[in-house]
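Exercise 7.
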Amino acid sequence: MWSMDNKVLSEVDKIPVKKGEILRITLHNNSMMRHPMHLHGFDFRLLNGKGDNSPMKNIIDIMPMETDTIEFAANEEGDWFFHCHILYHMMAGMNRVFAVGDYENPYLPDKQKAYRALQKEANMPHFMAQNDFATNGNDGEAMLQNARWSLGTEWRLGYNDMHGYEVETHLGRYIGKMQWLMPFIGFDWRYRKMGIDEHEKNIFGQTNKKDNRSAVSLGVMYTLPMLVNFQAEVYHDGIVRLSLMREDIPISKRLRAGFMVNTDLEYMGELRYIFTKNIGLRAHYDSDMGFGAGIALTY
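Solution. The predicted structure, written as tokens, is:
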């Protein structure tokens, strides 16, 4: 039996299989996303306790937190691709090759080179960005990631000195089989004049200097159940900040919610209505910048 999960299907790119071998594979989806897994070259039995009545398929849509067991006879020589049908999942590493039989493939004169190229392709970097043009300011984020590394920047730009500007950048690497944990280094740069609304101390009694700040940090981000991110960060001047946040909480087919709260006494709540994959209408309340509404663009 070969067990796989949604993050790392195996420690190798190629799974050698003897011709005629019966493979029984258990797939664990430990994420909050569905994964339509497709096997080339074979139909498989979806066991799941059905015995002789197990249906035959070549693709199975595995639901969040679901476990499925498939079985097939590897009776056809060749290199057979097994992958998630959601393209960016496949490109992030949810793919492997079953190499059935001891044979020569005329289309792969150098198999090892081809498998290395597959792994390189499965770890391709991708870029995303979004920006909200709102009545109380301009805020957004940009991120460059591959299957392990993440470089992200967030910004909040006000229309006056009171709201000022703020930029936070983090470079981190996901570790562990499930990649719930990401240690990171960060940089926080901000300036504003909050006046009577300024919080001079955080909940730990530290003077946070958050209204005129240029600081380097070390921290970790951990993904909790329900995809809530917990972030712990220590700055070079000893300031500690703990945060809880989640975005893209599905309220309906087109309505999403999000929130953020931290120990600097900052908080934010948002609602976003999705018109297309690139355009939405966003309303939010930020403890520093107040209420705002505007057009959100996503790439």
